[in-house]
Amino acid sequence: MQSLVKTLLISLLAAFLSVGLLVGPASAAGKDTTSATVTLSTATVNPSGSVTVGGQLKKGSRAYKGVKVTVQKRISGTSKWHNVRTAKTNSAGRVSVKVTGLQKNYDFRLTFAGSRTAKASSSSRKTVKVKQQVTVAKVSATTVNAGDNITLSGTTSKALVGQEATLQAKSGKSWKNLGTAKVNSKRAFSVKGKAIGLDTTAYRVWIKGTAGVTGTASAARNVTVYAWYSLDYTPAEGYVGLTHQDYWRVAGKTYPRVIGSADSGYTWRQIMLGKKCRTFKSKIGAMDMSNGGYQRFWISARSYKEYGAGPLGTLTGISADVTGEPVFLIGTIGVPSYNTWSRDYPVYVGAQVSCTEEPGYTWGS
Prior knowledge:
Layout: H1 2-19, E1 34-40, E2 44-45, E3 49-59, E4 62-63, E5 68-75, E6 82-88, E7 94-102, E8 106-112, E9 121-122, E10 126-130, E11 134-139, E12 143-145, E13 149-156, E14 164-171, E15 174-182, E16 188-194, E17 199-207, E18 216-217, E19 221-230, E20 243-250, E21 253-260, E22 266-272, E23 277-286, E24 294-300, E25 304-308, E26 316-321, E27 327-335, E28 346-355, E29 360-363
Parallel strand pairs: 2-10, 12-19
Antiparallel strand pairs: 1-3, 3-4, 3-7, 5-6, 5-8, 8-9, 8-10, 11-13, 13-16, 14-15, 14-17, 17-18, 17-19, 19-28, 20-21, 21-28, 22-27, 22-29, 23-26, 23-28, 24-25, 24-27
């Protein structure tokens, strides 16, 4: 009897399988296809901004309602996804989630884990970018000489804390790096470098991007850059007066080129500035072979001023403000000592003028 029952059961099972009447849980091949999409209310936000993430799930071509879906996020440039919220779809197959306090770039997607009758699916990713901020609050100087230190200070957005801030100056069509400093925990930076360029030069602070953080630069700040032009090596006109002198020995040192006078009278030199300069500087003294009598120097720019040199064998530094002047003059008054056969030789050593373009020259006697 038992053998007969067993034989009957086996026969019935075979029959059910042959006509497809016996089914278990739905196989993947028999499940409906689903599709997920995701939308963002905006593609860019300011630091600490928010975005509304919308999603829709469909089964076949129809909205799939009343099933659980999950909105996920990850920092852009990374691989690990994190759940933001799991919710049931509404009658249109949709969900909506607001994400706040964004500091970095994030990718978002909508995922469906699947069900007994529907396949799992995930949307493509959509990215929201945070517009990082670098603000220069202070420039150490708006006019500098090339080679002087220049410092830009300011603040950044929170995501840039700990990053390296780079001081840059515009050079042609590119930006040249001048110095770096870290953004501190208070989001502040102060970065220093040597000034380059000539005339109006743009400076900025750049911070390179990292995972989830877009590289960004501050607005450019214009600085007027001056260069020092030596007056010792301009072409000589070849006549007596205040002109170039080669290998004069002054204060115990031999200089390859100076501006000096072998004339005991009144000499002068006119320098064409074109309103492009701001400072003249030089050292004054007398050639060591001078008799040690009387040397006087004068400058005429905004006003006329005379200078007396120190004792023979010494040099005295002088300077003058020539800002906005179209021309200025330098000169000497050499007076011989009581020995009428000896002379004093007044000299300008290391004469320079700072300008935004090379000055022009004319000579006097």
